[in-house]
Write a structure and sequence with these properties.
By secondary structure, this protein is an alpha+beta fold. It folds into 7 domains: about 180 residues, no CATH class; about 120 residues, Nucleic acid-binding proteins (OB fold (Dihydrolipoamide Acetyltransferase, E2P)), CATH 2.40.50; about 170 residues, Beta Barrel (OB fold (Dihydrolipoamide Acetyltransferase, E2P)), CATH 2.40.50; about 140 residues, no CATH class; about 70 residues, no CATH class; about 90 residues, Nucleic acid-binding proteins (OB fold (Dihydrolipoamide Acetyltransferase, E2P)), CATH 2.40.50; about 190 residues, OB fold (Dihydrolipoamide Acetyltransferase, E2P) (Beta Barrel), CATH 2.40.50. Helix content is about 15%, strand content about 35%. The chain has 21 helices and 61 strands. Helix 9 packs antiparallel against helix 11. The C terminus is likely disordered. It is found in: Chromosome, Telomere; Nucleus. One of its GO terms (molecular function) is single-stranded DNA binding.
Amino acid sequence: MTNCVFQSLSEQTWLEAAQTFIQEAICPADQEPDLQLTQRVIDCVRRIWCSQERSQGFALPVSYSFVSAQKLRSRHHPCCSHLSWSSNACEAWAQEAGPSGNRLPQEQLLLLGILTDLSQDSEQESQDGSLFVRDNTGILDCELLDLDLSWLGHLFLFPSWSYLPPAKWNSSGEGHLELWHAPVPVFPLAVSPDPLTPISVLYPEIASLVLRHRSKRRGVQSNLAGKLVRLSPLVRSQQKTYFVLSLGKLLPTSGQAVSQVPIIVQIPAQLVWRRALRPGEDYVLTELRVSRIHGHRRRVWMTTPSSHLRLLNAGCVQELQPELEGPCLEAEPEPFPRPCNSRDGKEPKGALRNSRLLHYKGAVTGVLNEPAGLYELDGQLELCLAYQQFRGLRRVMRPGVCLELLDVHLLQSVGGGTTRPVLAPCLHSAILLRAFSCQKPGTQSSHHVHGASLYEDLIWQRQLGLPLYLWASRALAELTCKLCPHVLRHHQFLQHSRPGNPSLGLQLLAPALDDFSPPSSTIRNIHNEILEEPHHCPLQEYARLQTPCSFPTLAALAAEGEQKAWASFDPKTLLPLPEAAYLPSCQLNQRLAWSWLCLRPSDFHPAQVLLGVLVASSRKGYLQLRDQSGSLPCLLLAKDSQPVTDPKLIGCLVRAERFHLVIERNVKSNFPSWKELGVENFIQKRRARVYVQFFLDDSLILPVPRSTLHSTTPSVSPQTELTCPEEPDVGQSRLFLLSHKETLMKMNFCASSRAIPEVLKPTFSFRVSGIWLEGTQRKEGTGWGPPEPLKDVNKDQKVLLLFHGSSVRWFAFLHPGQVYRLVTPLSTPMLFEAEGSSCTSQRPLELAACGSCLTVQDKWTLELESSRDVPEVLGLHRALPESSLPNLLSGNFTDSLVSFSAEILSRTVCETLRGHCCTKPGNARALRRCMKLTVALEPANYEFPPHLDIYMEEPHLPAPLGLLPGAQVHFSQLEKRVSRSHNVYCCFQSSTYVQVLSFPLETTVSIPLPHIYLTELLWGGQAPFRATASCHVVSVFSLELLWVCAHCRSICPQGRCSRQGSTCPTQTSVSQASIRLLVEDGTAEAVVTCKNHHVAEALGLCPSEWASLLEFTRGPGRVALQFTWPGAQLESSAESNEPLTFFLRTLCASPSVLRPIVLSFELERKPCNITPSEPPRLQRFQCGELPLLTRVNPRLRLTCLSIQEPEYLSPLRAFASS
């Protein structure tokens, strides 16, 4: 009894709430309550509720409540309600959603409203084929699976539905309903009666003839009947919305449509027919007219405002046979060919393939790129909806949606990074919605929300084929992940292109797209694509795409480059035999300490495109490219020999297809000898420095809106890393001509007299010197006012600028010979005047050379000025300083600072100039290393440039970017020194400035050494440093064979180190050899020194004979022979009667050694040696009985590079060799 009372009370309360809701939301305003309407609604709800097994004794669903359109629109979360579902249906729905828990939340709500295609009352113009559910509180967009046109305008109870709030990409901000099942009418629907008289109709075969012949039927409206064989999507073109349906007849054998006739429906009130039409059904369309479409060569049938759509009832129609007059005006269209797949793997590269048309039913299992219209079907196929206008369908597409695709194109092996087959509907295809998804929309990243208009541009404006479109979509996703949201906002990067405001994303893709699909002036003809037979569309033919390029993140590019660098690191390749076999451990590990690898875009697959925002680092002083993943150091040149000088480049987006990815490998190793080079355990530490270098002329520079720039590293302070030049509180400025820039290095810089030296740490800083130009200028509007007059015209205008802290960011843009504007805030009066206290420096030595000294503050900025606008600069010499070659290679130290341009020949690591090559035993002090550059000077009018060594030590290490073998570099203010062997060399100082003029060439050409006579080396000046000569070995001066300890280089008899108290870590020994020969070629004599494996060439021994000779030498550890001439007396370190000594003495005097050779050599006395040349000497010769006294040039001293046998041997030489 209690339960009955409770049920009665609950139902009564529910009935009162229902009555109130119906009166407010359904009944017309300002009218009395409609009791009949209320009762009809309640009866409808009761009938649905009681038909299920969940009623639990209640006659009404008291747990359910009515919801209005206004309340649903205010919801921010999706929901669903299924009043008509049984318990089994609910369980099946829960299982279909899967265990992920992503199903739509189910709520107990009742939805009541009028189904209509009018967005507002009685406004026909607002009809565009959309459906709505309306009540007194508002209106909701809706989608449903099947529509009966008789439902429109009637009140329904919707038993099963879901509501989804607006997605991020939805600019209208409107959610929508998904009506799962057919709505239940509150009032019975009226049934349309059959016509009293049969309708006269034309069937497709006759209707198509009417279009091609002169007929009286053209001027009258006709009725058409037939089977719906094709249905196009809704198309919005030229401010019109329409769709095309085709009536025809299907062949029973193949199911192919024949005698089909297209009908265009573009009356706004009839666009909703598109939702009611079902392919395969028979229909009658009344009161059609014949019309011609602009741009289409054939006439077509079109509906009129009085047309109606009916299901075909054979008993209510009769076929009409019109009289056709005159000849056929248009040819019969050819039957539609069914394209088939080409045979994959048998066509040549780049050959065109034909897509295949088919019908497909499947479920969406993934959203790949929603703005681009890319989805996954059944976990095996890709679906591309971009070639249709799919905006209406886009809001329902999510995993779980079931689709039926009619006449869809299947494309296989499209390439471009796409591995799965692709289904792509064109405007000739139909997409039918068969089931909604029970899952709620997933949370999508921003790059999957914005950019729909940009993707449409790729299809409709650029008219890309499917393979290229899929690649472009993937590339845009890569670019978005690289740059958004910290560098650019998603909507700004993926914005729609407008005249004068092109999309940044499209600008970055344009170079690659132009190579494959140049911009076309033709427009995609929509009418022909839908109406023409045989069918032709952008999806019909395609070619497999080789991936044009990729846009990796900077971190991924650096990681892949570093991986390639270490994969190619092979000590045996860097130190090939036989050279490595004679190196002690110290030299061996030094030669491996630094190496480099240069990668180009073609070294990656696919080719990589460099992309990032240019920023200036205040912690390192060099430029960087930055994206979401991090930053990558870069070295830029505007063009050959021209540095980058304009700070406005900071914050610009840089795209480069031609670049060099440089990986400098630094290795700390302890290889005992060359035999262990293949053992990686001897590599103690490895580190790589990765950077890129490229020319701005080879790059695309895009300015980025300043309001959108954000640091990609939130933890980095704006004072330490500058992404974009900030707009300062601009007040005053002054121009200066930069004359010299010093190197960037860590120094103890005291910014003020109040600073405590004990707490200061070395920081990166540098100084520049220049000349003030004109006076201080004040900001006036958008420009600068006239310069103020100088207070003291005769005062020296030299200035020294000190950069430290955040101002170090300007280092990469400051170069001698350029004019810059130093801009400061208005709060610093009298800043540029020498009398001002703000410019007083704490460094008297600096003020002694300059009229003023300024410390550049963090908020100050620099701007590049054109020298043509400054008259004072026109008469000044602005070329890079160059020291004369005689002054450089001389002992004159009047000016010990020299400047010159040179090509780097080699770069090696050596010990510091103040240290020793190897450590002493027990000394645990870490050795300080030094970098050595061997350069070829570039003086004018020198065919053979001299070579020079340059040393760089701490605190100048690590070396600046770009100091690579093959690079052209200008060195300014190096310190010139002379070694104990009288060789000139240079060292880096704090005043040194380095400017890279050009990068190493991509392809190096090996130039053979010049072939000369030895006497040409005595001419001086233009003599080559390296050359070859055909000469004859006259005699052997000395020969030394020895085995030394690989660690300490002591003699090793019997393979054991002979040093007292040896604590060498290994008992490894290496062989070394040297021989001194006297050669002549009839023009001059030369003493040639050969070392190590060149000794074998000089002795004429093959590799096996040479190895055996070295093994015989292992016993004594050292064998040395000294030959003195004339008389050939022998001085030996061993007994003369020993077999080894006797063999070597005999060999050195044999024709096998004293023979003609082709000698490749270099001067033992380098051009940088300043030792005075030895004058010619008087020498007595005996010619028969007559003594002769003549002047003889000094013997040349050469170092052997290689020895080869002459190409043609004399018969005597051939006999001696045998």
